[in-house]
């Protein structure tokens, strides 16, 4: 029998191999959104598609054609929605139920296969590893017993997905040392924006916190605030404000929250003013093109084309993006992966091998900012 294990977190990737050893069945691992397609699943013909930790919307064409099992870290229907671990800890929970449910169109609303208790002590990374062990056991039980999922019962409580800016300790609802401890530990896992403080143009990120009587002991890292290289003193922000003039003008703020040193960021300048830019948020599987902007007064000159071409040639990896103009990006080799609920399209492309286009130096149309 064949099964699929789809996960967007590295700590779950070894689970497929362990499950094969324990069950004697074949498990196909999917780690990227672009891999989860009806065509790929049709080739596999899985009995179940398990999602131990998946950060993307599961396409309707997938969950209606296959029995998709998702795992949610709350006692559903309590806690439907995003950031369940952080929402639980901020609400004072020390334990929860790990729920295995069938995926349906409504978020976290499907019928339930089973629940298992889960302790919420320790750092987020520890809790996720603990949850992974329970999920592995639940998958074995579902394969063995093939239970019929039952409708959720009880009052529905919805959680809101947190934003990167909400990791700011200065803005957090902190009253005592225990609150500091909980806030830092609940964000301490790979792929999550760690708790931070911004002081004197720098950001301090905190992790590995321990509560010792009347003090906290942990690890901190300090780097230049946001680290977005912008030698013109706000030139990128001014460009984005010109390109997105209607409120809410939060495009630059989102970019600040995502940017990490080394992310591909290219600008086009004219007479000392940024008139075009492209930004790609790098991650372990490649990168996601987050921003492509050209000043309205400089459109029609091919600047956007040059920016995308430079990004693709300098960064030989899988690049994804979300857009409402898919035809434009098809010219650069992007292919549609999924139609999203807001009518935008998720696309992906494999960049060509690097060429001597000027990495870390001036290009024909702009500069890469290292």
TrEMBL record:
The answer to keyword Cytoplasm applying to this record is no
Q: Name one Pfam family in it.
A: Acetyltransf_7
Q: Which SUPFAM superfamilies match?
A: Acyl-CoA N-acyltransferases (Nat) (SSF55729), FMT C-terminal domain-like (SSF50486), Formyltransferase (SSF53328)
**Sorted alphabetically, which InterPro entries does this protein's record hold?**
Acyl_CoA_acyltransferase, Formyl_trans-like_C, Formyl_transf_N_sf, Formyl_transferase-like_C_sf, GNAT_dom
Keyword vocabulary terms for this entry: Transferase
Supply the CDD domains for this chain: FMT_core_like_1 (cd08821), NAT_SF (cd04301)
GO MF terms listed in the record are: acyltransferase activity, transferring groups other than amino-acyl groups
Which residue range or ranges hold the N-acetyltransferase domain?
221-352
Protein known as = Acetyltransferase (GNAT) domain-containing protein
Q: Is the Heme keyword given for this protein?
A: no
Look up and give the organism this protein is from.
Thiohalospira halophila DSM 15071
Which domain of life, per UniProt?
A: Bacteria
């Amino acid at each position: 029998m064949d099964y699929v294990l789809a996960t967007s977190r590295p700590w779950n990737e070894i689970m497929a191999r362990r499950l094969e050893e324990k069950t004697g069945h074949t498990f196909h691992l999917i780690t990227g959104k672009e891999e989860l397609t009806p065509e790929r699943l049709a080739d596999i013909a899985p009995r179940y598609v398990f999602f131990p930790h998946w950060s993307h919307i599961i396409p309707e064409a997938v969950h209606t054609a296959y029995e998709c099992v998702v795992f949610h870290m709350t006692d559903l229907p309590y806690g439907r929605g995003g950031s369940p671990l952080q929402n639980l800890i901020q609400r004072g929970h020390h334990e929860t139920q790990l729920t295995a449910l069938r995926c349906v169109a409504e978020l976290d609303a499907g019928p339930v296969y089973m629940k298992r208790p889960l302790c919420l002590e320790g750092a987020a990374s520890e809790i996720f590893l603990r949850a992974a062990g329970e999920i592995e056991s639940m998958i074995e039980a579902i394969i063995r017993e093939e239970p019929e999922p039952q409708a959720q019962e009880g009052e529905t409580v919805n959680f809101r997905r947190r934003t990167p800016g909400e990791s700011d300790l200065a803005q957090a609802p902190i009253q005592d040392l225990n609150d500091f401890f909980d806030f830092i530990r609940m964000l301490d896992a790979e792929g999550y924006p760690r708790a931070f403080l911004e002081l004197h143009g720098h950001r301090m990120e905190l992790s590995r916190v321990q509560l010792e009587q009347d003090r906290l002991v942990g690890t901190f890292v300090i780097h230049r605030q946001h680290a977005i290289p912008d030698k013109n003193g706000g030139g990128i922000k001014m460009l984005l404000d010109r390109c997105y003039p209607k409120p809410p003008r939060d495009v630059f703020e989102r970019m600040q929250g995502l940017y990490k040193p080394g992310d591909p960021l290219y600008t086009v300048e004219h007479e000392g003013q940024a008139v075009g830019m492209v930004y790609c948020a790098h991650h372990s599987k490649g990168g996601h093109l987050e921003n492509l902007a050209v000043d309205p007064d400089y459109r029609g000159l091919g600047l956007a084309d040059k920016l995308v071409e430079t990004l693709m040639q300098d960064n030989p990896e899988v690049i994804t993006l979300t857009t409402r103009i898919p035809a434009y990006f098809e010219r650069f080799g992007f292919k549609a992966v999924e139609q999203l609920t807001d009518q935008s399209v998720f696309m992906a492309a494999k960049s060509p091998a690097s060429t001597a286009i000027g990495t870390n130096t001036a290009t024909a149309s702009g500069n890469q900012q290292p």
